[in-house]
Design goal:
Radius of gyration: 23 Å
Shape: globular
CATH class of one domain: Alpha Beta
Structural class: alpha/beta
CATH architecture of one domain: 3-Layer(aba) Sandwich
Oligomer: single chain
Helix content: 25-40%
CATH topology of one domain: Rossmann fold
CATH superfamily of one domain: Response regulator
């Protein structure tokens, strides 16, 4: 046991010296390559890398590999950002934007990845951790998660998950407003029969809010609207589920809606394919609008009109939230939680137009 511990400590010291001198952003050897070079087990490598990642020397990027992390500069305040290691275009996009947005601030971000299939408590507590920002992988938090998060750092900010019932700060997109904006855009174009296709997990708060906002605006404008559920579950291919659900809905003949809101841009290709297979053209027969504003949206055919979430604004709002939290006067009482929202904007492209006839 002692021999294994000494080997692990020796490996950690060697990697710390080697990787601490690497240029920020430089690609580092894989776990398998480290095992071969140093003649150690994967467990020893994992333990050494976990320490190096926690110290901000190494950054592990899902599907990309290991990289030398940019060191903290000057007297910047450290923020530990915890992201799930489950592959996610949205989380990757957010990570890149947040790093860019924090670069010119008084904060520096150290990224940690946690196992998506384990409880949040796997992250562990650190008595020296000042600020933790957490993007939870799950749609809801268990009582164990809540108890852990409350003590994992002096300041904890939840990302993309509203925490109004908890004494935890949160930063989210204004998804209710996004759903309202999608319905209003279609109604302003003259559409009087609407539908929403839910292609994501239906119980996630962001999707629930988008759906509620869409239906609320339709009711206010006295326009009928239906919700089509793709029945997506954890691990499903959202694009394939979107295609199957819309195809099933169209089998009975031409739809009775002319405006369609899809809950996320990521699954639009499945929507377009289902419409095309049923002889329907976008936007001639059906206008399609979605949500998120991903970079690939302008390359869809036709380019998708979307409720755009500006990732730069997310970073700016995160900085503002941190400044508010750190400068709040000490009162001796638990601080009132801050819940910040990033408003979306409408990005009009060629997938929406006035209804036929």
């Amino acid at each position: 046991m002692g021999n294994r511990a000494s080997k692990s400590e020796s490996l950690y010291q060697q990697l710390r010296e080697a990787y601490g001198q690497a240029a920020p952003g430089a690609r580092l050897p894989t776990v398998r390559a480290i095992m071969k070079e140093y003649g150690v087990s994967q467990g020893s490598v994992d333990r050494a890398l976990e320490r190096l990642i926690g110290q901000g020397i190494v950054e592990a990027r899902p599907r990309e590999g290991l990289f030398a992390a940019a060191p903290a500069t000057g007297n910047k305040i450290r923020v530990d950002l915890f992201l799930s290691n489950h592959p996610s275009h949205t989380v990757d996009w957010f990570r890149q934007s947040l790093l860019a947005g924090f670069a010119e601030s008084e904060f520096t971000v150290v990224i940690h990845y946690y196992r998506y299939d384990r409880p949040l408590s796997q992250i562990g507590r650190d008595p020296d951790r000042e600020i933790a920002m957490v993007w939870p992988n799950q749609a809801t938090l268990s009582s164990e998660d809540i108890a852990f998060l409350g003590g994992m750092a002096r300041h904890v900010i939840m990302l993309n998950l509203p925490t109004h019932s908890l004494s935890l700060d949160s930063l989210c997109g204004d998804d209710d407003l996004g759903g309202c904006m999608a319905a209003k855009h279609l109604i302003d174009l003259g559409h009087r029969r609407l539908a929403m296709l839910v292609t994501s997990l239906t119980d996630h708060p962001t999707i629930l809010a988008r759906t509620a906002g869409f239906l609320k605006m339709a009711r206010l404008m006295d326009v009928p609207a239906e919700v089509i559920q793709a029945g997506t579950r954890w691990g499903d291919n959202g694009t394939a589920k979107a295609h199957a659900a819309l195809r099933a809905r169209l089998r009975a003949g031409r739809p009775d809606f002319t405006g369609l809101f899809v809950d996320t841009d990521w699954n639009i290709n499945g929507v377009y394919k289902a419409l095309q297979e049923n002889g329907l053209s976008v936007p001639r027969d059906i206008s399609v609008i979605s949500h998120d504003g991903i970079p690939d949206g302008e390359f869809f055919s036709p380019p998708i009109t979307t409720i755009h979430q500006d990732q730069k604004q997310w970073a700016q709002e995160a900085v503002r939230l941190l400044r508010r939290r750190l400068t709040a006067p000490a009162t001796g009482r638990p601080p009132t939680a801050i819940h910040a929202y990033v408003p979306p904007d409408l990005l009009v492209r060629a997938s929406t137009a006035a209804p036929p006839g």
